[in-house]
Structure formats: structure tokens, C-alpha cells
Automatic annotation (TrEMBL), chains A, B:
Pathway annotation from the record: Protein modification; protein ubiquitination
InterPro entries listed in its UniProt record: BTB/POZ_dom (IPR000210), SKP1/BTB/POZ_sf (IPR011333)
Taxonomic superkingdom: Eukaryota
Boundaries of every BTB domain copy: 61-137
Protein name per the record: BTB domain-containing protein
Taxonomic classification: Eukaryota, Viridiplantae, Streptophyta, Embryophyta, Tracheophyta
Originating organism: Coffea canephora
């Protein structure tokens, strides 16, 4: 027989689907692709343009954000990042509460964002307008912290996914600790799983000693997870682990 | 052989694909579905809440729109629809130009929208915030007109698609005329195609006589398209049409 998709000959042992199912599957694929195109154009429509503030400042802004520990501009005034109250309030319940009631930020039109660099603040605001960010591991960590603080769930998930796909044995211990501190559950699980696959090497790592020193509870949790996994694996094999 | 998808037996005459292609196709489908989920959550994130203005007015608005021929409120003041300059300007180049320069609308903070009902205006503004509208044929026509006037391409396409899927022999002539007036190319083509499939009934329709009276050029275009189609069909059959 000749495969309708790859056009290669195959025997009945390598048979996949009947013709009807093949045709249905092709239609489904076309439909899904059309849906993707529709959604992409919707995303483009709903995005706000939010260019580099200095080159083409956004129109009709009514608030500015200021990074309060911007080392790069420590000697001069921090660069304010212009934005719209409506956008901030629509994306973050924390900004909404801050701007709705007559708090200092609302009255002065200036929101100070602590412990963040100018670049991270700009990337954060840009994400609120466009649902896009250009990430590396450091930036993903910075944005995850901001996303948690200002309750921007969509951004937090986005950063978690990025960090999960960039996990390695080298960064697994610090990322595990970081994820723990910021309640990033799926990142904790992913880092944990990677560490548990390398338990024999764990104690040789410098970061391990640091973690025992600073966050012994996290280390306990790690060992507890490892033990549970061992018990489960043994139970699945139909035997109990050796004492 | 047993189909891996529907689990039914089939013979080699009804064979579709080999196992490898089936497995690849299943993976592709899963990937497309994941992409759809991601895009849907992006759309939700980028959407603005824009509730019924009277019940829960949007926050931090800086402009109002007024429907200038709202018959339902002819005896009293028209109900203003609050909005954000930034949203209007980001969705429509016409609003952008109007608000950026010091035109009357920009200075007063009130934009009059002519020849539109309050309901259509609200649906229009809601679409600018959410990329969603609850349509029937009349509303789709009203919004298409606004979309053309304010150059909101995404909404125009959305209305065209809706009207195409709601075309019938009964509404094909008025929709053909409407689409023509508003440069809705794909809607013109779809209505034309439906009319050409029913040419023998065309002259009996009341709307036909009206169209000849009011827009004879559109009728000429219809006949020209019909003739081109006949010539093409004949050419594809390898013969010339009878004189």
C-alpha cells in the first residue's frame, strides 16, 4: 500500500489509519490552522503599540512609573516610564487597587517600583501592553518577581514556561530555590524532577551547601520528594523498597 | 487491518496512511491545540474589560462618544459612551489623527458619531476593547460601516465573514449592493456568486428592479461577471459557448 501522506510504500504491519480517518484528520488540521490565524490576528489587534518611550512616546499617558533602585542612573534622576492608568489597572489587580483609591500614587501620578532595574521595568510595562517579552534567564527571573508582586498571572506563567525550558543541571539548584521563594509551583516541580535525576551528584555542588546553610527546609523538602518518588517507583514495580 | 484512529477493520483499498505518518499527525494536532490554548489566553490577557457603562463604568476614561442620531433618545440628551483616548487611537488611525491634533474633538473630549444608533456605537466601542461582538445581520452591517469609516480593518473583516456565512438567496441582492457601497470585496464576491447560481430567478425579485433603478452600474457588473463565468466554464470544457 502507498501512504496517502508521505507517498511511501508500506506493509500491513506498518499500517496507520483508514482513508476516512486520514481525510478527517487533514480537515481538522486545516481548521485548527485557520483558528490559529484568527487568534493571531486578534492578538495583533488587541496589542497596544508601546515603543521605546524616548524615541516615540506612547500617546495620552496619564501616569509614570519609576524604577527606584536603578543603579545605571544612580547619580542622576531615574528615567520615568510613561503608561496609562487604564492599561495598568486592566492587567494587574494590584495597580487597579493602587490607582482606584486616593493613594499617593494615584494623586501624584507617579508609581515607584522598588528593587528593579530600569530595563526590567520597561520590559514589564511592555508586556502589559503587548503580551510579549524578549527573555533571557535573568530577565525571566526579574519579570517573574514583578508578575508575582503585581499579580499578573499571564506573565508569571510565561516566565515559568521559559525558565522550565531553560533548566539545566547547572542552574537547577538556584532556580529551585528561586521558584520556591516566589510560589512558582510548576517551576519548583520541574527543577525538583531534574535534581532528583542527579541525586548522586547533588552533594558535590557548591549551591547545595549554600542552600543547606540558608534554606534547610527546602533541602528537606527535596529529600522528602525523592523518598516519595522511590516509594512510588517500588510500589509500581509491585515490590517494597529495601529497608 | 485495524485503523489506529477509529479502531475499525479496513481493507487495503480503504488504506490511508502508514503508522509513522499517523503518529506524526497526532503530534502535530496536539501541538496546534496547545498553540490555540496559548493564543486564547493571550487574547484574554490583552482584552480590556469594558462593561455596560451604566452598571460598571470603565475606569480612568478621558473621552466620551455620542451617537448623533439616536432615535431612542431623540427627546432627551443622547447617552454618552465613555472611553480612553489611548484605546481609540491604538485601534483606529482615524481616531488617532482626530485626537492627536487639536481638533474640536480633542479639545472638548467629546466625539460625535453621526448616523449611528446608541446600540451600534456601544457595540463598536466594545469591539475596540475586546475584539468581540454579538452580531445579527443588521448589527454586522452597522459595524461594517463604522469599521470602514474609522479604518478598523479587523472589525471589517469580522463583519464580512459573519455576513458571508449568513448570505441567503433572500438577502443576496441587498447585501450585494451594501457590500459594493462599502468596498467589502470578499462580501461582494460571495453575494455575486450566490446570485449567479440563481440567474434564472433574478429578474423576478423586487430588489432587482430597485437595484436597476438606483444602481444600474452594479447590475451591469453582475451581468459582466456572469458572462465571464460562462466563458470560463466553456473554455474549461474545451468548447466555446453557443452564440
Amino acid at each position: 500500500m502507498k501512504c496517502l501522506s508521505c507517498k511511501e510504500e508500506y506493509g500491513s504491519r506498518d499500517a496507520g489509519t483508514c482513508r476516512e480517518c486520514y481525510e478527517e484528520a487533514s480537515e481538522t488540521e486545516e481548521e485548527l490552522k485557520r483558528e490559529i490565524d484568527d487568534l493571531k490576528s486578534k492578538v495583533n489587534f488587541l496589542r497596544f503599540f508601546w515603543g521605546p518611550p524616548l524615541l516615540s512616546p506612547p500617546l495620552f499617558t496619564d501616569v509614570v512609573l519609576v524604577a527606584s533602585d536603578d543603579h545605571s542612573t544612580a547619580s542622576c534622576q531615574p528615567v520615568p516610564v510613561p503608561a496609562h492608568r487604564a492599561v495598568l489597572a486592566s492587567r494587574s489587580p494590584v495597580f487597579k487597587a493602587m490607582l482606584e483609591i486616593k493613594m499617593e500614587e494615584s494623586l501624584s501620578g507617579t508609581i515607584k517600583i522598588c528593587d528593579v532595574s530600569y530595563d526590567a521595568l520597561r520590559a514589564f510595562i511592555n508586556y502589559l501592553y503587548t503580551a510579549e517579552a524578549c527573555l533571557d534567564v535573568n530577565m525571566a527571573c526579574d519579570l517573574l518577581v514583578l508578575a508575582e508582586k503585581y499579580q499578573v498571572k499571564h506573565l508569571k506563567t510565561y516566565c515559568e514556561k521559559f525558565l522550565i525550558s531553560n533548566l539545566s543541571w547547572e542552574n537547577s539548584i538556584p532556580i529551585y530555590a528561586f521558584a520556591h521563594q516566589h510560589n512558582a509551583k510548576s517551576l519548583v516541580d520541574a527543577a525538583l524532577s531534574l535534581i532528583m535525576d542527579n541525586m548522586e551528584k547533588l552533594r558535590k555542588r557548591e549551591e547545595y551547601a549554600e542552600l543547606v546553610e540558608k534554606e534547610p527546609r527546602m533541602v528537606v523538602e527535596l529529600y522528602e520528594a525523592y523518598l516519595s518518588k522511590q516509594v512510588n517507583t517500588a510500589a509500581n514495580k509491585g515490590s517494597t523498597p529495601k529497608a
